[in-house]
Write a structure and sequence with these properties.
The chain is α/β, with parallel strands linked by helices. The protein contains 15 helices and 16 strands. The structure holds N-(iminomethyl)-L-glutamic acid and fe (iii) ion.
């Protein structure tokens, strides 16, 4: 039985208002002068260190790893609910052209498809493992990975299978764009996605997703594809409103999607539909940063009562950052979210977007996925943008190497 005792925490963010010492109206469930005990990978106690004495005596028996946080902040590991890490190739030239004024378009995806199809399993596996370490070093302890750069049955199946080696949260995105060989037969491609491709990928996946936007799939196509995935037992998510308004949000909410992602362009009806639903709205401000698009209106979504998650969307085209601290800094600086709202959205919000209750919080029963910051509070993530503040990271109570 292994026990981790983290004490001397200047500020502990639990995302649980019931934590001893937390204010009942604070969604972050933040506690000053705190301690946390984890056993066998799960949090068993968290709260004010001064209140810990009886529990500490009982729980701190046997083999205990003691860590003095030295007054620094501890937060839940980031939950990055939207990435496209299963790919090969390089599109830095596309980024350079964009910075010189070119517009982002969905079609660039096809160049990554060609490179990904040409890559071996070993290359793709090495890339995924590299990203897993890169994410951990920045405090991300849970992450989703989409397929979508294979776009034929064998390649989509292999991306889903390889992604499953690094995460439980695999999303089948055969409907990323229509591949070149189906340029004259869109409905044939939708048949492939909803038939043999779904059949091959579903065993490795938890989710189905569609890129419903200009240059990608229509709302009618999205509805067909998502319904097929749902009928196959997959949860629903969607890329919508990245390049323009459309019917994607309506379709996704109608299918009880876990998340609508991007949401840069939303109608008032979209915002109302999200507010009245169980669907999280996942904002990806790294995309707007890397494509020079206008940022989404996070304040309008929050005022309407929509639940927001923040994610990286790490991909070789529209946004090649895997840094959740950077995303938080953008959310605060560019979306007008408070540092508290941004941290919640990058942890508990991401967990909601993946319909998970065991991550994104640090209260009893949760996985002991936590980050010790080299800072007195999470506010520093936005206050000191670009500075590596992630000092130590634990997943299931086991410390990950972050250097
Ligand atoms: O989320 N929008 C669709 N997919 C990615 C971009 C993929 C690419 O350009 O390679 C996104 O932005
Ligand atoms: Fe995406």
């Amino acid at each position: 039985m292994s026990t981790l005792f983290l004490h001397g925490i200047g500020l502990l963010v639990t995302n649980d208002q019931h934590t001893s010492g937390a204010r009942a109206d604070d969604p972050l469930g933040a506690v000053e002068d705190a301690a946390l005990i984890a056993r066998d990978g799960q949090v068993v106690w968290a709260g004010r260190q001064a209140d810990a004495a009886p529990q500490v005596a009982r729980l701190l028996q046997g083999d205990v790893e003691r860590v003095d946080a030295g007054g620094r902040a501890v937060i839940p590991g980031f939950v990055d609910s939207h990435t496209h890490l299963a790919f090969a190739g390089d599109r830095s030239a596309e980024f350079v052209a964009r910075m010189a004024g070119e517009r982002y378009a969905a079609g660039g995806i096809r160049s990554t498809v060609a490179a990904t199809r040409a890559a071996s399993d070993e290359q793709l596996r090495a890339t995924l493992q590299h990203f897993e370490r890169e994410l951990a070093s920045q405090g991300t302890t849970s992450f989703e990975v989409k397929t979508g750069y294979g776009l034929d049955v064998d390649n989509e199946e292999r991306l889903a299978r390889l992604a499953r080696e690094v995460t439980d949260e695999v999303t089948f995105l055969g409907a990323h764009v229509v591949p070149s060989e189906y340029a004259d037969d869109r409905s044939g491609y939708v048949d492939l996605v909803t038939g043999p491709m779904l059949h091959a990928c579903a065993p490795h996946a938890r989710w189905i997703d569609v890129f419903c936007d200009e240059g990608a799939f229509t709302a009618e196509e999205a509805e067909r594809i998502l319904t097929a995935g749902r009928d196959r037992g997959l949860g629903v998510r969607i890329h919508a409103g990245q390049l323009g308004e459309g019917e994607g949000v309506r379709v996704a909410v109608g299918l009880d999607a876990a998340s609508v992602d991007h949401a840069t362009y939303l109608s008032a009806d979209d915002v109302a539909a999200l507010a009245a639903s169980n669907t999280v709205c996942t904002l990806l401000p790294g995309v707007e940063f890397s494509t020079r698009h206008p940022y989404p209106d996070a304040r309008a979504l929050l005022s309407a009562g929509v639940t927001i998650a923040l994610a990286s969307d790490c991909n070789p085209g529209s946004c090649f950052t895997s840094s959740m601290p950077f995303v938080i800094a953008l959310a605060v600086r560019e979306l007008g979210m408070t540092p508290d709202e941004a941290l919640w959205a990058a942890t508990a919000g991401g967990a909601r977007a993946l319909r998970r209750d065991d991550v994104g919080r640090l209260s009893p029963g949760a996985s002991a996925d936590l980050v010790l910051l080299d800072a007195p509070s999470h506010v520093y993530l936005a206050y000191r943008p670009g500075v590596p503040l992630v000092r130590r990271v634990w997943k299931h109570g086991v410390e990950l190497r972050v250097d």
